[in-house]
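User: What would this chain look like folded?
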Amino acid sequence: MPLINPYEIISKSALPAFRAMVSRRLTEDHGLTQQEVAMRLGITQASVSNYARKARGTMLNLEADPNLVKAADQVAQVLASDKPDQMEALRMMTEVCDYIRFNHVMCKLHENLDPEFKTEGCYACVGGLSMDSAQIKTRIAA
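Assistant: Here's the prediction, encoded as structure tokens.
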């Protein structure tokens, strides 16, 4: 049985899904070109194109979570400004990854990727903390 670490799911599924959300907002809502989006997100133009064509970033539907929708809007707003604050966007995106992990957003995907792994009772996403610590709140939920 393969052991899939939550950070692998974050890096291969959740982060691309969130970047796709931000990318779409930057092109559709803020009128940036794919090249401009790529520069501001620190990714390639080909990645932005893949997000636009839904060839990447589709393993998780993060649009279903209102906190993640709000976070994507906020990150896009920061990156769309005349002087984009990439450090602030990075901080916000790190909080998003923590939110996804601590709120078990990717548990169903984990079970789909590894059908033998049962997420019920799993606390890997809280980093080995006691289950009482699973109620970590992030600023994006506020």
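Residues 129-139 have pLDDT under 50 and may be disordered. If you want, I can go into more detail on any region.
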